[in-house]
Design a protein that fits this description.
This protein has 485 residues and is mainly alpha-helical. It contains 18 helices and no strands. The radius of gyration is 21 Å and the shape is globular.
Length: 485
Amino acid sequence: MTIADDRTRWLALYVLTLGSLMIVLDVTIVNVALPSIREDLGFSETSLAWVVNAYLLTYGGFLLLGGRLGDLFGHRRLFLVGIALFTVASLACGLSTTEWMLVSARTVQGLGGAVASAVSLSLMMSLFTEPADRAKAMGIFGFVAAGGGSIGVLLGGVLTDLISWHWIFLVNVPIGALVIVLSLRLLPGERGAAMSGRLDVAGAVTVTAALMLAVYAIVNGNQNGWTSAETLGLLGVAVALLATFLVIESRVRSPLVPLGLFNLRNIWVSNLVGVFWAAAMFAWFFLSALYLQLVLGYSPLEVGLSFLPANLIMGAFSIGLSAKLVMRFGFRKPLATGLLLAAAGLLLFVRAPVDGNFLVDVLPSMILLGFGAGIAFNPVLLAAMSDVEPSESGLASGLVNTSFMMGGALGLAVLASIAASRSHSLRLGGAGELSALTGGYHLAFLVGAAFAAAAAVIGGALLREAEPMAAHEPGHGAAAATETS
């Protein structure tokens, strides 16, 4: 490979990560701006949730389908379609003057984000086949996945405080246009084989509907009640659709998700780790931001800046050191170590008081979480892709993204419910408002720490390390990226 070709590969990676960063940011960037959006557009407390939920609904629902479409019709083509949709929808969000316009645009944003996210990891895997390069590239990509949520809190605070909430969306427009132009120049073209195969329409419809109904039920569970007829009914329909999907996949000639994929240990273990890890991460992003705003009285900008130390540490580890750790120790040890450090960081938040001090009560937690996320994301993403053939890399990418998405949505809903219930009990017991809020967050952080620890145990015990020979076998996916120490 020439120096020019090698340079092009790395430039293409940076373009992919820039596109992915935009999409990951939009899960969290909106949260610190919600009060401003509500005041400006006249949302009610109930309808305001749809600024977040509309995005989560289509993003979570279409990840799996987007990944498979990429396998069938070309990963580059689907990435460009997804980024274009996302960029146009971002413009509509930024120009919104009514509730319905913003919520509709957020729905389209989620769809574009799902399609682009589901194939971006596959494109990265095709660019880098050497073990060391692939591990390093995955570290950069992992930083976006791990750090994007907390960067969103930072950027949302800065833009909302210094300009206006409209710019949390409008900033995507020039970035999206740049990603499209550079993708056309730098990303590898489609191969003829990408067009082979047929789309499993029945499977696509049932699994997409199941995921969307499940996300809808989860994100509205606190508001409607977890034992309400609506919540249980929607979850029941989602389970029935998922069962129907599995029956379809076992019978069609070209299934959307070949069920044999789940016989591969690293596929199901890494996806299970992803569910627990995302639940813990969302506890960090959202609950610590609420503690800083509602208890300590931080402004949106101050909340964003509070995440900066974790972002810097996460970036240093993801981009510089995580790849070396995976190459030296394999998947399991770095993954378990990183997740346990993150669990310790969440545990430190359990002792954060009502009159907390940033240096004493917030910074140590942020530092540990930065180390943990920076170390853990590279191995979990590599493991998720380690056993699949290139023809199924889009599907594997869609699966791991779906696991993170569903884990995050479910984890956030459960933790918010736990925090609210605990705060309510403390108020009934005579505690002041700030003490009640803090007590609720403490319990939720404790459960979040348990999620991170569970992910550490599952990954550390069950992931299969790649064979040393895998580095030399063509088409063996990311298994080449690590060797047993």
